[in-house]
Sequence to fold (213 residues):
Amino acid sequence: MKKAGLRLWTVAILAVAVGLASYRYLLPGTPGAPPTVLANHFNQFGALVFHATLSATALILGAVQFFPAIRARWPAWHRRAGTVYVGCSLIGGAVALVLALGTTSGPVGSAGFGLLALSWLGATVNAWRLARARDFVRHERWMVRSYALTFAAVTLRLYLPIAAIAHVDFMTGYRAISFLCWVPNVIVAELILARRRPARGLLARAAVSPGSS
Fold:
């Protein structure tokens, strides 16, 4: 398996695992969630459940979207799934911004998660706008950026146990993770995009292929 394929499968497996696990927030009592994370001023309105469910759906759908064979074989499905991804990301990002303002981790946590939410919203809107303009090359690049931010749901869950193993105070680690869960993702995404040649790829050809609807 080529390195690019291995990376895709690794991202997809992690995304599906975290996404499916996040649906537990739909269950009464939200089993398995740290009490400190759940202590948000807006939880009484169900904001965390709403955000987790929509973000989990975006996380799973987004991972599948990057497989070239799927895009080429089922272009109509790609667009419909992409529309659902955009909708879940925009609503989930808006709710994430509300949660960032209500976090009990203080101004650092609010800044970290708030900037993540704003960046996620901005990248996703731009990707959607470019798709509507049929600029599929730039659309794909902005979708990479959007999904790098969506993938913060995975990296956050990777950092939390690392902080616990390192005996870092939970709240101190949580504030740092509010930035660490997404800033490195963006850097990696930009490095990947910088290595790509600006040519029309499978995404563009699939989107305009005859017989697609």
Notes: Residues 3-207 form one domain. Residues 75-102 form the longest helix (28 residues). The chain has eleven helices and no strands.
